[in-house]
Amino acid sequence: MKTLKTTIFFFFFFLLVSLFYQSVSVDTLAPDQSLLDNNETLVSSGQSFVLGFFSPLGSENRYVGIWFKNVAQQTVIWVANNNNPISNSSGVLRVTARGEITIGLINQTEIIWSSNSSSLSAAASNPVLQLLENGNLVVREGDGDNYLWQSFDYPRDTLIPGMKLGWDLRTRKEWFITSWKSMQDPSTGDSSYTYRLDIHGLPTLILRQGSNIQYRSGPWDGLHFGRYAISTPNSQVVKPIMVYDDENLYYTYENGEKSVISRFVVNQTGMIKLYIWSQDQTRWTDIATIQSDTCDTYKYCGSNSLCNINNQPLCQCLDGFEPRNPRDWERFQWSEGCARKVPLDCSEPHGFMTVSGMKLPEGSQVLGEKTMSVADCKASCLRNCSCIAYASTVANGCVVWYGDLLDMRVYYDDGQELYVRRLASDLVGSSKKGNKTAVVASVSVISGLFLLALITWYGFHVRSSRRRREAEEFEGQNQDNKQDIGEEDLELPLYDFNTISTATSDFSFANKIGEGGFGPVYKGVLPTGQEIAVKRQAKDSGQGLVEFKNEVILIAKLQHRNLVRLLGCCILRDEKLLVYEYMPNKSLELFIFDKTKRGMLDWRKRFNIIEGIARGLLYLHRDSRLRIIHRDLKLSNILLDNEMNPKISDFGLARTFGGGEHHQESTKRIMGTYGYMSPEYAMNGLFSVKSDVFSFGVLVLEIISGQKNRTFHHPDHDLSLLGHAWKLFNEGKAMEVVDECMESPDPAAQVLKCIHVGLLCVQDRPEDRPTMSTTLFMLESDTPLLPDPKQPGFHSERHVAETYSSSTGKMSHVSNDATVTLLQGR
Predict the structure, then answer these.
(1) CA distance linking residue 81 with residue 287, whole number of Å
(2) Are 416 and 361 in contact (CB under 8 A)?
(3) Residue 554: what pLDDT?
(4) Side-chain half-sphere exposure of 488, counting CA atoms within 13 A
(5) DSSP code per residue over 712-781
(6) Is 286 a catalytic site residue?
(7) What's the N-to-C CA distance of the chain in angstroms?
(8) Which of 138, 256, 412, 766 could form a disulfide with 690 if both were Cys (CB 3.0 to 4.6 A apart)?
């Protein structure tokens, strides 16, 4: 009996010990231990990070990586064997007695990857591999803090607090990040993006794809990089830190609060982003994209010119400079930049003009000590005729530039002062040089004015002729399209008609994938194997040469992940074709209004689609090269890629605008789709960015409900979908709007917020609707304070089902799906 009790005691004792050791996370690995690819992991002491084997989503290859432990979705921040994958689950991780980390295969001597620590001694003293609480994987000597190797020295695509971008000036060790090849492949290659600190002249952060520069931050001036580099200005979220001394020159950051989980990433598309983990929404929130707008494109405006996102056009020459190729500038092609109107003459007096709010140009050279005054800096630059500009910075004192000034932009809320060399006569006006000079000058001025008047008349005549030709196209008169649209108007290639015809099997019915207001759409495959979508203008489409040119010229200048990409066009007599990237999931309309397919869209996917459309619209309204009102935003014009990311398409009706967010224009030619058009546009031809906001609100409510606005019917009332949603919102029953095909949409608070935002967007009066920047903020904010929505426009849709056209003098009924044209007089 005693023996039995003893046996039971020891059984439970060893069971408890076993359970105890299983519950305690191990963060170290000794040379006589190994980590196998069978769910074995190292976990940092504070339970923040995990090291183990993993496969990227959609891949079967195995890698050793580090990821966050307290994040619901696995987010890898570092990969050991990123360029050396393992094809099966037979991998093993070890640390050698010499302190080298190796990845190999079980029962094989082949080494797949190693840390290749050439600096290690032949006989390291008791090396230990350890995953630290800050996410750093280190090999240390015994229990000491002497690191023989650390993963923070070899970043991949991600920085977390404590990691560095820059240089160890003693060893010339560089820290930089490199994008994954794709979401499924962490390897690097010639097409990968790198983000690194350039320390020639003023320190500057540079994004390259291969050897080509894509983006350049403003140079470090002692306080920031132009504006900011790897974080938002909100120091409560993250705190940027620049270390700049005799031994180190690097940029890093730390979290503003201990509870914050953040990561800074250069992704496979070359976007540089800062993410914060939202525990409430269980997702990563994109709080900053470093490339904020088109003006952040490297050398976008060419030399000696400024890019200003608030101007139209975006690029302008510095005072005293003029376009090198005026014809290119008329076509909004600025790459050749500007040259001085009058070349510098070193024998004449010089001065400097001040340009404020600047991102300083590239190619700076530090001159003198940090204590050098602005006056001494100016004098030093004046003494050297080759010195074109100078600036004074906190970090380096005087800096100067030689040759052309490149990659400059204007910041609307920050920036630095640049002093650009000019002839003194240009700055203060030339002095009189005798009567003869005055006469010559007078004749020159008169001649110049006459020539200017002649050029102005000619330009007006050309524009008037062009407008007449386009008007005649709308009246159905035939035009020679190849003459009207040539490659000189485009930034895209003209495809051969036979090539497109062959690609689409002669526009066969089997290749037809849809039809819109422009005409049918066909899937095709080019000889290169690239899949394309071809829009063929229908003869009865109601859209003519102007809409075709409008779409081609506008969308060619737009680049955003939530806008469809136009590859080119084709024109042959009456044939007008638009060639787009192929979207395998076609339009959002095919999902939302199909009971089977919309069941595939859970709330997370629907919210991501709403958010993506909002980002695309914000880009059009505020950040694009040509600020644009879309005017035909609807579900059928939202295309979905293979990952269900939304892309706004169909810019045939789009219009550019040069005013602010409250700028409004009018037209007698109302074109759009009922059910999505705002009241002021449908009734009076008034349109603005708020017209697009109204259409966006309709989209939001349709995406959430799975119902069409124009064909919505309820047995208890005669309201449209907008009116129905507003009624339920006021009754505290807004969740009844939600599509029954969505099972328990979670989080419910986010759904309610989106309904609320949608109703704010469809308010009857345009001045009551938010801008897209405010709309996006409300969507992405965890706890926004939202005003109560007022009555929506067209809340009782039955009253606008019939619409009067003054051109015909008749009432007409228009379906929800049709794009209509109403010519209300001439």
Answers:
(1) 30
(2) no
(3) 74
(4) 7
(5) --BTTB---HHHHHHHHHHTT-GGGGS-TTSSS-SSHHHHHHHHHHHHHHTBSSGGGSPPHHHHHHHHH-
(6) no
(7) 110
(8) 766
Residues 190, 210: Cα–Cα separation, whole Å: 5
**Residue spans of the chain under pLDDT 50:** 7, 10-24, 121, 228-234, 429-446, 466-484, 486-488, 797-826
Query: Which of 277, 292, 307 marks a domain boundary?
Result: 292
Residue with tokens 């002669």: 506
Do 124 and 255 sit in the same domain of this protein?
Answer: no
**What's the confidence (pLDDT) of residue 465?**
54
CB atoms near residue 456 (< 10 Å): 10
Of 37, 296, 407, 632, catalytic: 632
Domain of 279, CATH number, reads 2.90.10
55 lies in the same domain as 195:
no
pLDDT of residue 454: 55
Angle, helix 748-761 to helix 603-618, in steps of 10 degrees: 40
- How many alpha carbons fall within 13 Å on the CB side of residue 407? 20
In a domain? residue 11: no
Task: 587-590: list long-range contacts, CB under 8 Å, 24+ apart.
Answer: 587/514, 587/635, 587/636, 587/637, 587/638, 587/639, 587/640, 588/635, 588/636, 588/638, 588/639, 588/640, 588/646, 588/703, 589/634, 589/635, 589/636, 589/638
- pLDDT at position 129 is 95
Local structure of residue 124 (DSSP, 8 states): -
523/470 Cα distance (integer angstroms): 30
Q: 734 is written with which tokens?
A: 């807004």
For 526, counting Cβ atoms within 10 Å of its Cβ (0-12 exposed, 13-18 middle, 19+ buried), the class is middle
The tally of domains found in the chain comes to: 5
Q: Is 530 helix (H, G, I), strand (E, B) or coil?
A: coil
Omega cis (within 30) before 186: no
Determine how many CB atoms are found less than 10 A away from the CB of residue 491.
Answer: 14
Predicted pLDDT of residue 634: 94
Residue 602, in any domain of the structure: yes
Distance CA 254, CA 241 (A): 8
pLDDT of residue 477: 33
At residue 587, φ and ψ (nearest 5 deg) are -100, 155
pTM (predicted TM-score): 0.55
Residue 719 lies in a domain: yes
CA–CA distance, 105 with 100 (Å, rounded to integer): 16
Same-domain check for residues 568 and 613: no
Rounded Cα distance between 331 and 680, Å, is 33
Distance from C-alpha of 358 to C-alpha of 647, rounded to nearest angstrom = 33
- Write out the two tokens for 813: 């009924």
> Given this model, what pLDDT does residue 6 score?
52
pLDDT value of position 67:
97
Final residue of a domain: which of 550, 581, 612?
581
Helix/strand/coil for 147: strand
Type of residue at 454:
L
CA angle, residues 161, 216, 384, in degrees to nearest 5: 125
CA 462 to chain centre: 37
Q: What are φ and ψ of residue 37, in 5° steps? A: -85, 65
Range of the domain at 511: 483-581
CB 285 within 8 A of CB 273: no
Q: Are 638 and 588 in contact (CB under 8 A)?
A: yes
Q: Give the pLDDT score at 268.
A: 83
